[in-house]
């Protein structure tokens, strides 16, 4: 998965944070206007206790807004869970304060406002979050309805608790289902992205992924290696194509094992592999080539026997600042690889290969 991939989980989280920022911003504005007497709810002026309650609500919403901004900027960061918890708790306290204040100073029942933290808990923590906030609001409701010496209308408390419970279940289950759908979508997207940039047999990067890597190294020093297995056709002919596939997979593992951190190897077709060595000059590349030869030419256990192949390796080097594309470097490495292949002396009757010979050998595995 490329780092630049815009996956649906970050997008979803940013959407949630943006919605919360807008809604909470409207809440701050509404509360400030209430404090300023814009709505003229109290002809004789705002009660001092309500002014204090409004100021506290604005402060809590400001804290929640800060946490929302942090989450919006880093939707996949390690802080996301606790910043979400800060927002849910802040919204819960604000709504409880609002309901109690309206009951005391305006004799107005506004328990429906407690739906807000229930839904917020569902959005962030799914069904457990929705049920947790519902439990807190249900415990608070009897106090809120009786505060200030008011009496509870028969059935109001039960109705409010049951309605909030239904909303908690609906919002929590829907949020959980949507989260699972997002996870499946991200998994499918990662699989498609991997498939588009990797060889299905060996799992190594393909030409597309290699080209992307080379583009990122544009203008920097780069060495390109092209590897061609010698004797691979003989393995296919004598042991079968299944054995040939096993050999290619093992060769891919060995190539990766011989490389350094930051290097990239890929399969470009058939029995050909390409290796990109960033920030690498000819001397360092020679060390990598030596390791590759040692790894690849070791016998490989395969189905029905044991296979040994050789390898021809061509290298092309680009100095920093040179304007040579991957295509040009690959063509130069290809020419160098075929020069090496042509220079190999055929094996003699003694069966001993000449130095650097890439003679293939396939035969039955020896019993241990």
TrEMBL record:
Cross-referenced SMART domains: GGDEF (SM00267)
Transmembrane segments: 21-42, 48-70, 82-105, 157-179
Domain GGDEF residues, every copy: 220-357
UniProt KW keywords: Membrane, Transmembrane, Transmembrane helix
Signal peptide: none
Keyword Membrane assigned: yes
InterPro entries: Diguanylate_Cyclase, GGDEF_dom, Nucleotide_cyclase, Rev_trsase/Diguanyl_cyclase
Stretches the record annotates as Disordered: 340-368
SUPFAM superfamilies per UniProt: Nucleotide cyclase
GO molecular function, one term: diguanylate cyclase activity
Annotated PANTHER family: DIGUANYLATE CYCLASE DGCM-RELATED, REGULATORY COMPONENTS OF SENSORY TRANSDUCTION SYSTEM
NCBIfam families in the record: GGDEF
Name this polypeptide is given: GGDEF domain-containing protein
Organism: Paractinoplanes tereljensis
């Amino acid at each position: 998965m490329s780092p630049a991939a815009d996956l649906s989980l970050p997008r979803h989280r940013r959407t949630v944070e943006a919605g919360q920022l807008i809604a909470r911003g409207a809440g701050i504005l509404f509360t400030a206007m209430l404090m300023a007497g814009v709505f003229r709810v109290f002809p004789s002026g705002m009660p001092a206790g309500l002014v204090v309650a409004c100021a506290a609500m604005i402060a809590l919403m400001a804290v929640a807004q800060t946490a929302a901004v942090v989450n919006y900027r880093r939707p996949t960061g390690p802080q996301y869970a606790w910043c979400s918890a800060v927002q849910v708790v802040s919204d819960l306290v604000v709504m409880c304060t609002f309901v109690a204040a309206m009951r005391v100073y305006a004799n107005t029942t506004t328990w429906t406002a407690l739906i807000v933290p229930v839904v917020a808990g569902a959005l962030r923590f799914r069904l457990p979050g929705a049920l947790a906030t519902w439990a807190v609001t249900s415990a608070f409701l009897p106090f809120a309805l009786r505060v200030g010496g008011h009496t509870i209308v028969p059935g109001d408390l039960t109705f409010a608790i049951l309605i909030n419970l239904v909303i908690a279940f609906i919002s929590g289950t829907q949020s959980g289902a949507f989260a699972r759908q997002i996870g499946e979508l991200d998994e499918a997207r990662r699989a498609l992205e991997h498939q588009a940039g990797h060889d299905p047999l060996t799992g190594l990067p393909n030409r597309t992924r290699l080209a992307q890597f080379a583009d990122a190294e544009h203008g920097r020093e780069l060495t390109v290696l092209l590897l061609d297995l010698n004797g691979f056709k003989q393995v296919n002919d004598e042991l079968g194509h299944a054995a040939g596939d096993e050999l290619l997979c093992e060769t891919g593992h060995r190539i990766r094992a011989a490389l350094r951190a930051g290097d990239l190897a890929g399969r470009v077709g058939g029995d050909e592999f390409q290796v990109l060595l960033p920030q690498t000059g000819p001397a360092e590349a020679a060390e990598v080539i030596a390791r590759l030869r040692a790894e690849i030419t070791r016998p490989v256990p395969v189905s029905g026997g044991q296979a040994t192949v050789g390898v021809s390796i061509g290298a092309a080097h680009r100095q920093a600042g040179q304007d040579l594309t991957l295509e040009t470097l690959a063509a130069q490495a290809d020419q160098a690889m075929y020069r090496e292949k042509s220079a190999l002396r055929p094996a003699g009757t003694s069966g001993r290969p000449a130095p650097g010979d890439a003679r293939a050998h396939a035969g039955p595995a020896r019993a241990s």
